[in-house]
Write a structure and sequence with these properties.
Length: 448
C-alpha cells in the first residue's frame, strides 16, 4: 500500500454504477503524495482511530459538516465560446454558427488574445467544479497550444482538441486540408511531449459539414497510428437541417453516423456530442464501436435542437456522459447540466422527446438525480476513456474531488434542522451553485 500523505475526514458521496450512490457519513479518504487515493474507509466500521488516521507524517484534514464528492467531468465544451456565452440563444444551430460562433472563433487566430480568453474560460469551468473538461479549441495551432499551457498552469485535467475545418466555412475560419492534418500532428506531438497525464490531445473534426473526406480519412489514420489511439471527439446528429445536409453531401453513406465510421473515426476512444436524432441502426453502430455519447441538454434546449432519449441509449448499452457545450449551452456549470438532463428526461417520459418520431420503446423512467450525477462523473469518465483514473473514489484512482460547503456565506442553499445528508446533497444538485463548491482538487492538488 502506498503511504498516505493526507487523510480527509468527512462525509463522502460518490457513484459506483448507474443509480448506485454510496454515502459514507464519516469517511477517511487517504491520498498519497502523487494525488492517488490509497483507501476510503467508513470510520464507523473501524475499531480504533489508529485504523484510519495513524500514518506517521500524514496530514489529517477535518472537513466537519462538509461533503466530499468526485469532481465533475464536462465531456463537451468549446473554450473559445465562453466569449459569447448567453448570446445568440434565439437562433438554431446552423444560423447560430454563422452569426455568432465563426466570427468569434476567428479572433483566436491571435495567440495573445486566445491566451487571455482561454484563461477566463478554464477558470470558470474549474470554479464550477469541473475537474476534467474535454475542450474544443479552434483551428489555430499556436492558440490551441496556449489552451494546453493554461489548463496545465491552472491545474485542471483537460482533453484538448485543435479543431479541423477545411470546407463549408467562412474564408476567415478555414484551413487547407494538408495544413489542417499537419497542424493536428504537430499539436498532438506538442501535447504528448509535455508527458503530463493531466492533459491529453483529442482529434477534433468540427462536424461532417466542415471537414472533407480526405481530411476525415487522414484524421482517422492519425488516431489509430498511436497506441492507444488518440481520442476523437465531434458532433453528431444534433439538428435536423444539419443531418439533411450531411446526407446530401454523402449519398454513399446510409447515415450520418456511418460517415464518421467509414472514415475510421468511431472506436472506443471516440465520443460524440448530442446524437439526438440517431436511428436504431446508428445507435447499434455506436454501441458496436463502444463510442460514447455526450448529452448536452442545455444546448439542446437553447439551440432548439431536440430532446435526447438518454434512457434508451443506456438500455442499449451505449456509454453516456454529460457536457455543458459552452456556449451552445449558456453556462459552464455541470450542476446545470445535471438539472437539465433530469428535465429533458422528464420531457421524454411525458411523450415530448425527439423519439416521438423515431419510436419510443414503451415505458420510460425519467433519470433520477443519482443517475444524472453518475453521468456527470463516472459516465463522462467512461466516455472519455478515463474510467480507471477518475469519476469516483475507488482506490488507485486520482483524487479529483470537490469539497462542498452547503452553509457557505451567500449561497442559495438553506440548511434546516433535521435535513439528512442525502437531502442536502439533492438540494446542492438542484439549488446550489459555485459558492457551495468551496475547494476543488485535481490529482490531489488544490486548484480552488
Ligand atoms: N453545439 C455545437 N454544435 C456544433 N456543430 C458544429 N459546430 C458546433 C458548435 O460549435 N457547437
Amino acid at each position: 500500500m502506498a503511504k498516505p500523505s493526507r487523510i480527509y475526514l468527512g462525509t463522502v458521496i460518490h457513484s459506483l454504477s448507474l443509480g448506485c450512490l454510496e454515502v459514507i457519513e464519516r469517511a477517511a479518504v487517504a491520498v498519497d503524495k502523487s494525488g492517488r487515493i490509497v483507501f476510503v474507509k467508513d470510520t464507523s466500521k473501524c475499531a480504533t482511530t489508529a485504523d484510519y488516521i495513524d500514518f506517521p507524517g500524514a496530514e489529517v484534514v477535518e472537513l466537519g459538516a462538509r461533503i466530499l464528492i468526485p469532481g465533475f467531468i464536462d465531456g463537451h465544451a468549446h473554450a473559445p465560446q465562453q466569449t459569447f456565452l448567453g448570446t445568440g440563444m434565439h437562433l438554431p444551430l446552423l444560423k447560430w454558427l454563422e452569426a455568432y460562433t465563426f466570427p468569434k472563433e476567428a479572433k483566436f487566430s491571435d495567440p495573445v488574445y486566445a491566451a487571455a480568453h482561454y484563461r477566463t474560460a478554464v477558470k470558470r469551468h474549474l470554479f464550477n467544479g469541473t475537474t476534467t473538461c474535454s475542450y474544443f479549441a479552434t483551428i489555430h495551432l499556436e492558440s490551441t497550444k496556449a489552451l494546453v499551457d493554461i489548463v496545465l498552469e491552472l491545474g485542471q485535467r483537460g482533453l484538448v482538441g485543435k479543431v479541423n475545418m477545411d470546407r463549408n466555412s467562412p474564408p476567415f475560419l478555414i484551413e487547407e486540408t494538408d495544413t489542417s492534418l499537419k497542424d493536428t500532428q504537430t499539436f498532438i506531438d506538442y501535447v504528448l511531449t509535455k508527458n503530463n497525464p493531466l492533459v491529453q490531445p483529442v482529434i477534433t473534426p468540427r462536424f461532417i459539414p466542415s471537414v472533407t473526406s480526405p481530411l476525415l480519412t487522414g484524421l482517422g489514420q492519425l488516431s489509430i497510428s498511436h497506441t492507444p489511439p488518440i481520442r476523437v471527439q465531434s458532433h453528431l446528429s444534433e439538428n435536423r437541417n444539419e443531418i439533411a445536409w450531411v446526407l446530401q453531401m454523402h449519398p454513399e453513406n446510409p447515415t450520418y453516423t456511418s460517415v464518421y465510421d467509414s472514415h475510421g473515426l468511431l472506436h472506443d476512444r471516440s465520443y460524440m456530442a448530442h446524437c439526438i436524432w440517431c436511428t436504431q441502426s446508428e445507435r447499434d453502430l455506436l454501441q458496436s464501436r463502444s463510442t460514447g455519447v455526450i448529452h448536452c441538454p442545455n444546448s439542446n434546449f437553447s439551440l432548439s435542437s431536440g430532446i435526447l432519449n438518454v434512457r434508451r441509449l443506456l438500455r442499449e448499452g451505449i456509454k453516456v456522459g454529460l457536457g455543458t457545450d459552452v456556449s451552445g449551452g449558456y453556462t459552464p456549470s455541470m450542476l446545470d447540466a445535471i438539472r437539465q438532463a433530469v428535465i429533458a428526461s422528464k420531457m421524454v417520459s411525458i411523450g415530448q422527446g425527439s423519439d416521438a418520431e423515431t419510436g419510443n420503446e414503451g415505458e420510460y423512467d425519467a433519470l433520477s438525480y443519482a443517475e444524472a450525477f453518475h453521468l456527470a462523473t463516472m459516465g463522462s469518465a467512461e466516455c472519455l476513456s478515463l474510467g480507471d483514473t477518475v469519476g469516483n473514489f475507488l482506490e488507485g484512482k486520482d483524487f479529483d474531488a470537490l469539497v462542498l460547503n452547503l452553509r457557505a456565506e451567500g449561497s442559495p442553499v438553506d440548511v434546516f434542522d433535521g435535513d439528512s445528508t442525502l437531502e442536502l446533497f439533492q438540494r446542492f444538485l438542484f439549488v446550489g451553485d459555485d459558492r457551495n463548491i468551496e475547494q476543488v482538487y485535481v490529482a490531489g492538488k488544490r486548484c480552488k
